[in-house]
């Protein structure tokens, strides 16, 4: 994992993994790399921790049904 492109690809795969958008084959390759390289493992754990923090500390705001209907009506006018 010496060059920048490999690092960028690895980081992209980490994001895709946590977004549930990584194929099973790519997941296997990702975990093989994590098992072999402590730096990769550290990067994976850092992303995992950050995502858990965000999930636990920030709540999605909800939108009222009235607001949704109002937006839909305005879109139909345009």
Number of helices: 4
Write down the secondary-structure element order. HHHH
Number of domains: 1
| Helix percent band | over 70%
Taking the alpha carbons of the first and last residues, their distance comes to: 52 Å
Q: What would the principal axes of the Cα set say about the shape?
A: elongated
Biggest sheet descriptor: none
Rounded mean pLDDT is 88
**Quaternary assembly:** single chain
Poorly predicted runs of 5 or more residues? none
What structural class do the secondary elements suggest? Answer: mainly alpha
Task: Report the radius of gyration as a whole number of Å.
Answer: 19 Å
β-sheet strand percentage: under 5%
Number of β-strand runs: 0
Which structural traits does this protein have?
78 residues; mainly alpha; 4 helices; 0% strand; elongated
How would you characterize this protein structure?
With about 80 residues, this protein is mainly alpha-helical. The protein has helices at about 5-20, 25-35, 40-55, 65-75. The radius of gyration is 19 Å and the shape is elongated. The protein starts with a helix and ends with a helix.
Chart the SSEs and their pairings.
Elements: H1 4-18, H2 24-36, H3 38-57, H4 65-77
């Amino acid at each position: 994992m010496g060059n920048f492109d490999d690092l960028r690809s690895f980081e992209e795969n980490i994001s895709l993994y946590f977004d549930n958008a990584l194929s099973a084959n790519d997941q296997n390759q990702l975990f093989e790399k994590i098992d072999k390289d402590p730096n990769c493992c550290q990067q994976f754990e850092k992303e995992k921790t950050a995502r858990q923090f965000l999930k636990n500390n920030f709540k999605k705001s909800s939108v009222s049904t009235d607001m949704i209907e109002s937006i839909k009506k305005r879109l139909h006018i345009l």
